[in-house]
Design a protein that fits this description.
The complex is a heterodimer of chains A (61) and B (190). Chain A has one helix at residues 43-47, and strands spanning 11-15, 20-31, 51-60. In chain A, 8% of the residues lie in helices and 44% in strands. The radius of gyration of chain A is 16 Å and the shape is elongated. Chain A has one domain (11-60). Chain A is mainly beta and 61 residues long. In chain A, strands 1-2-3 form a three-stranded antiparallel beta sheet, with no helix packed on it. In chain A, strand 1 and strand 2 form a beta hairpin. By secondary structure, chain B is of the alpha+beta class. Chain B has one domain (2-177): SH3 type barrels. The longest helix of chain B is centred in the C-terminal third of the chain and has 15 residues, at 164-178. Chain B starts with a strand and ends with a helix. The relative contact order of chain B is 0.22. Chain A binds chain B through residues 1, 24, 32-33, 41-42, 45-59, and chain B through 21, 27, 34-45, 82, 84-85, 88, 93-98, 132-134. Strand 3 (51-60) of chain A pairs antiparallel with strand 3 of chain B, so a sheet runs across the interface.
């Protein structure tokens, strides 16, 4: 399944209860099972199964 | 069973029986030497199971619609359960992409029992053809929670809302499933 994620290259803030302690930047991710091409609904939802994806991020102080 | 589609956005808040698409849940999060790695599971469709009165009272506080003297009725999370394509459930491969092999409903009797809602764990839904959702099965064992604000921000991903009578049936069966008591084997054998 091929899908684009808008999380790529996006910056996230890591916040403690009161202060921002750092920022993370997404530096890479992996997807599983890139075998299908999504053509649109409803076929997309008829075929789609739950899937997992990974994000790696580095803390930038 | 046919379920009526209701008008989207008729109630401007998260409601019991709402079906949302592309709901993400954090599966695992690790930190090592400043590198954070986390995995998320994306569920194509989920249904909201939290009691509607709880959702309404929470919304009254969050939206400021009603004057309240405290935040006593605020909730932290919403219970949801995934919907799986019934064809995938029958063949036991609906969690294939998570490397989980599920039970196969091989016989016609098993299939009939599933679709007649005679198996406590599952709830079969054949939603109106007006809604682009294939006949699906809710798996009560796979319920999880998401933050209220997360769902409130997903209004564009609201697919449909199950009508009250049908959603009450789902809620009632879910409650019964959660309240089940597993007796030790030796008690069953006597």
């Amino acid at each position: 399944m091929v899908r684009e994620y808008d999380v790529f290259d996006k910056e996230y803030s890591i916040e403690s209860s009161t202060d921002i302690v750092g920022k993370i930047t997404v530096i890479g991710k992996e997807e599983e099972e890139k075998n299908e091409t999504i053509t649109g609904r409803p076929e997309y939802y008829d075929r789609l199964k739950p899937y997992r994806y990974y994000i790696k991020a580095k803390v930038i102080q | 069973m046919k379920v009526r589609k209701t008008i989207l956005g008729a109630i401007g808040r998260v409601s019991q029986g709402d079906i949302y698409k592309d709901v993400e849940v954090i599966d695992e999060m690790l930190e090592d030497g400043g590198i954070i790695q986390f995995s998320k599971i994306v569920f194509p469709l989920v249904i909201v199971l939290t009691q509607d009165c709880d959702l309404e009272q929470d919304d009254n506080i969050r939206s400021g619609k009603k004057a309240v003297k405290d935040q006593d009725k605020l909730i932290f999370s919403v219970l949801v359960a995934p919907l799986y394509n019934v064809e995938h459930v029958l063949t036991g491969d609906h969690l294939q992409q998570l490397n989980i092999k599920m039970q196969i409903f091989g016989s016609s009797t098993q299939e009939t029992n599933l679709c007649n809602n005679e198996i406590p764990r599952y709830h079969y839904l054949d939603i109106s053809t007006e809604v682009p959702v294939t006949p699906s099965v809710i798996d009560f064992k796979h319920y999880f929670s998401v933050h209220v604000d997360y769902l409130r921000g997903k209004t564009k991903d609201l697919v449909c809302r199950i009508s009250p009578l049908f959603r009450d049936d789902i809620s009632d069966r879910f409650a019964s499933y959660l309240a089940r008591i597993g007796l030790p084997k030796q008690w069953k054998e006597k």
